[in-house]
Design a protein that fits this description.
- The protein is an alpha/beta fold.
- The protein has two domains: about 1-35 and about 75-105 and about 240-310, FAD/NAD(P)-binding domain (3-Layer(bba) Sandwich); about 110-240, 3-Layer(bba) Sandwich (FAD/NAD(P)-binding domain).
- It is about 30% helix and about 25% strand.
- The strands form seven sheets. The chain has a five-stranded parallel β-sheet, with helices on one face. Strands 10-17-11-12-13 form a five-stranded parallel β-sheet.
- A hairpin with a 4-residue loop joins strand 15 and strand 16 (about 230).
- The radius of gyration is 21 Å and the shape is globular.
Length: about 375
């Protein structure tokens, strides 16, 4: 019997798992390695932070998804992967072998790298990743801020930093919110019109934006690259995702940032029996931003090719669409949309985002 291991319960693997009850894999033992009992949908987290959703509204529980399958679920984290011996080492010391491996473990924030860049962050900051931990801790921040207004500093000028800063400002109007955007322009991966809308949204919500890099975190302030200090009660790290540390010595082909290098079939370019999708992978034949939109849409072609690989059938290339609909929530049921160079904003955009997000959750809740 062949061994298929699904490493992580990211968006693409949620889709694959949802197909196994309807279409089991013949003569294949499927093992899922995922440390958390549910998959928290990142697209709805800003709405949760703003108070529009309960945490339960934003999650896909794994147990019901697996209830009518023969999947073995190991609720552990990975500490090492050896692609040449086809073995995975878990946090309890267990080794798991595989014939075919699919990696969709989601984005991480490398504590060691962040601590080196911002000493004190591990002790005093709240990290957005793993997102399951952030979701569990955010209500404690709300409770504290409702008793005594806080000074919050969000570190990171990308989509996550922007959306979470706006959400926190809406949820905690008595507290002050600052966004440390770094040296890149705010929202630099978006078209100029969207960047302008983001700046206007922050200004309208009285969120201070500092175009500087954070170089240290303490209990009472953060240090900026120019040596100045910004008083804050809590720093929240929302910087871009890193590759999981265990990939570095895996033997897999990686890009220059340490993510799995994959081809048009989502196969690792060095190991044909290893697939990867979502934020953990980089398509070497295309230039794609790290976006949840691509991660979600990778589920269907990934499931198709994993099944084909196990059955010895031909694999098919997957070409993502050139343009994607990107939706940035602004805290108060208002959002900014972009499609290529076109953009729009308004309450109707938030309702569209809400409809799409709730539809994703509903689709994968048995």
């Amino acid at each position: 019997m062949k061994q298929l291991v699904l490493l992580g319960a990211g968006h693409a693997h949620v889709h694959l798992l949802s197909t196994l009850a309807r279409r089991p894999l013949a003569n294949v033992q499927v093992t899922l390695i995922a440390p958390y009992p549910r998959q928290l949908y990142s697209g709805m987290v800003p709405g949760f932070v703003a108070g529009h959703y309960a945490l339960q509204d934003c999650v896909i529980p794994l147990a019901p998804l697996l209830a009518h399958t023969e999947v073995t679920w190991l609720q552990h984290s990975v500490v090492a992967l050896d692609a040449n011996t086809r073995s995975i080492t878990l946090d309890d010391g267990t080794c798991v072998g595989y014939d075919v491996l699919s990696i969709n473990s989601g984005p991480v924030q490398d504590r060691q790298k962040i601590e080196a860049a911002m000493p004190g962050a591990r002790e005093y900051a709240l990290f957005v990743r793993p997102i399951e931990s952030f979701g569990a801790l955010w209500p404690q921040v709300v409770e504290r801020a409702q008793k005594q207004p806080m000074r919050l500093a969000f570190i990171g000028g990308g989509a996550a930093g922007f959306e979470l800063a706006c959400a926190a400002a809406y949820r905690l109007p008595a507290s002050s919110v600052t966004l440390l955007a770094g040296h890149e322009p705010l929202g630099h991966t978006y078209p100029p019109a969207v960047q302008a809308s983001m700046r206007q949204a922050l200004q309208a919500r009285n969120i201070s934006v500092i175009p500087a890099r954070c170089t240290g975190v303490s209990e009472t302030d953060v240090t900026l690259a120019n040596g100045s200090r910004l008083a804050c009660d809590l720093a929240i790290v929302a910087v871009a995702a890193h590759a999981p540390a265990w990939l570095a010595k895996s033997g897999l082909a990686l890009d220059d940032q340490g993510f799995v290098a994959v081809n048009a079939i989502q196969q690792c370019t060095s190991h044909a029996n290893v697939f990867a999708a979502g934020d953990v992978a980089t398509r070497m034949d295309l230039t794609l931003p790290r976006s949840g939109v691509y991660a979600v849409r990778a589920g269907v072609p990934l499931a198709r090719n994993v099944r084909a690989a196990l059955a010895g059938e031909p694999l098919s290339a997957y070409t993502p669409q050139d343009k994607t609909l990107n939706l940035l929530s602004c805290g108060n049921r208002y959002a900014i949309a972009s499609w290529g160079n076109a953009s729009a904003q308004g309450r109707w955009v938030w309702w569209l985002k809400n409809w799409i997000d709730r539809g994703f959750i509903k689709k994968y809740r048995p």
